[in-house]
Amino acid sequence: MCGITAFRGPSAATRAHEALARLEYRGYDSAGIAARRSDGTAVHVRTLSGVAALVMGLERDPDATTAAIGHTRWATHGGVSERNAHPLEDCGGRLYVVHNGIIENADVLRERLRSAGHRLATDVDTEVVVHLLEEAVSVGLDLGRALADTAALMEGSWAVVVLDTRTGALAGTAHGSPLILADTGDGVYLASDVGAVAPFVSAFRVLEDDDVVDIDAEGTRWHRAGGSRRPRGLWPVPAISLLASSGRHTDHMGNEIDEQPIVARRVLDALSPGIRDGALWNRLGLPPLENVDRVAVLGCGTSLHAGRALAGVFARAGHLPTRALTASEAGHEVWEPRTLVVAMSQSGETADVLRALDGLPSGHATVLALTNNTASSLARRADAVIDCLAGPEIGVAATKTFVAQVLTGACVALSGLWSSPRADAATLEADFTALAGTPDALSGALHAWRDRAAELAGDLVTASGFLFLGRGAGLVYAAEGALKLKELSYRWAEPHAAGELKHGPLALVDAGTPVFVVDDGDPRLDVDIAEVQARAGRVIRVGERSLRVGGLELQLPRRGPSWGPLESVIPLQLFARELALRLERNVDKPRNLAKSVTVA
Ligand code: M6R
């Protein structure tokens, strides 16, 4: 989603810009920087051409700046334009503001400000913040106090940082949207994500709701709601031992797809030794499963799909009542005691997930966070955290984090279930064996489908819509394939339980309609396929458990693992990317999307 960076100290614009580049993949509709130069003048640059393009606009010496704020935007209120890009300025060009979140009462505040004579130049909700600050500062309040008073008038969610270009002071506050502070010794950063500053600091502090910090020549002052001045505690920046995927593709997504067998191997090497003795489960401090009556897995988008696959492990191998919840709908849930909640989120910053956890009745549930960001808001909020070890994923469309989440979740679940009397011992053994074969199965799928996916994309480049079918454990992979296709190619793609075809979706099938079928070995799929073929639809079957050896087709055991045919996601990812490339889409930055969705 949007990204915020700020720095007060030497070479401020350069430092804020460097940090901003690390957040760009999270939101890329526009970018901007405002800074105070050492000579007391202001610089304000905005662009639709990406963070790198800001350098040109920073003109003169960007190092001769003492305080700066930066932003990458994912538009919510107001179209994508330079005019609507952050930082936004007040009437006098003195104060500049960057904001993540949504000001829900912006319309009312806007009217009030207009009648008071302010010139509002954009369609963005954030603009009211800078004009309210202007009013507060004009009556003599210091920046921190002005920000606290302004925030008291706002409804919604925000992380806000304001720069006073006259004094070089910065102030920040947060309410339902992350903001962290990190001291480098020679200066102070504010950022919406620790990833922005991870290479430059070893520890950081997190602003809790309604905290205000102000940073000026006299230092950093912390104001907690309720009056305390004590700074929040320090969190270590997790060591970044894993590098972003690299390889033969110029896009990140292609390399991230290719890296999946390696990621799978890494997860299994780290976690599978702790399965059979339950050590992995115990290390996480999770309650024994005798004390858990049900499991609820929640997440959004691809993480929700990974959660559904994980739910299959608790249900099929563990015979535990399990449900997978769309986090944005979890507010309607009735929570029972003794529930284990597994919150899935690669970014750990997804507002819908965090809000779902806010709705849990206290004392009812243990929350396990399964994330690729152990320094995230989700990780800090959970009772236990497991790192899915995918390494940095830059492509907005999740690929390797999906595989990592499914396998990490499966290892944790199997570890907990190993000693559970209600679990099915034969299924546990079969799942354990299947885990070990996963990296090869993923490699095999890459090998088998790379050229085929490209050819298929060539054939289907004019298709306007796609169906994705599956049954049982295969259904979630059909859903993931459809999600990948729509987000990358901007073509319609509908996932359905194959048994539902005859209840409506079959009406969509015409001569040549592409229908992907995820084959998890359920024999009833043959009937579903026949129904499509009878209407001359084009069936593309993926995940078949067969292997061609020396010209012979060998059938693999039909029963797949409890998490379903994970390797079937590979052809679907490859196809989505190939189709998108043919359609000249940006596969790393699909339109209208963002890597980290921090508004609920
Ligand atoms: O960071 P999260 O895993 O919580 O993100 C959840 C979804 O926003 C995310 O999976 C989204 O659906 C991706 N663009 C899918 O490729």
Can you walk me through this structure?
By secondary structure, the protein is an alpha/beta fold. Helices cover 32% and strands 23% of the residues. The chain contains 16 helices and 25 strands. An 8-stranded antiparallel sheet has the order 3-2-4-1-10-9-11-14. Strands 5-6-7-8-12-13 form a 6-stranded antiparallel sheet. Strand 7 and strand 8 form a beta hairpin. The longest helix is centred in the C-terminal third of the chain and has 35 residues, at 425-459. It is globular and about 75 Å long. The model has no long low-confidence stretch (mean pLDDT 92). Bound molecules: 5-amino-5-deoxy-1-O-phosphono-D-mannitol. 5-amino-5-deoxy-1-O-phosphono-D-mannitol binds at residues 300-303, 345-347, 350, 353, 396-398, 483, 487, 593, 596-597.
**CATH topology category name of the largest domain:** Glutamine Phosphoribosylpyrophosphate, subunit 1, domain 1
What ligands can be seen in this structure? 5-amino-5-deoxy-1-O-phosphono-D-mannitol
CATH architecture of the largest domain: 4-Layer Sandwich
What order do the strands of the largest sheet run in, or round the barrel if closed?
Answer: 3-2-4-1-10-9-11-14
The structural domain count equals 3
Strand content: 15-25%
Query: Largest sheet, described in full?
Result: 8 strands, antiparallel
| Structural class computed from helices and strand pairing | alpha/beta
C-alpha end-to-end distance: 11 Å
Number of strands: 25
Given this structure, which CATH class of the largest domain is correct?
Alpha Beta
Helix content: 25-40%
Radius of gyration: 25 Å
The CATH superfamily of the largest domain is identified as: Aminohydrolase, N-terminal nucleophile (Ntn) domain
* Net shape: globular
Low confidence ranges:
none
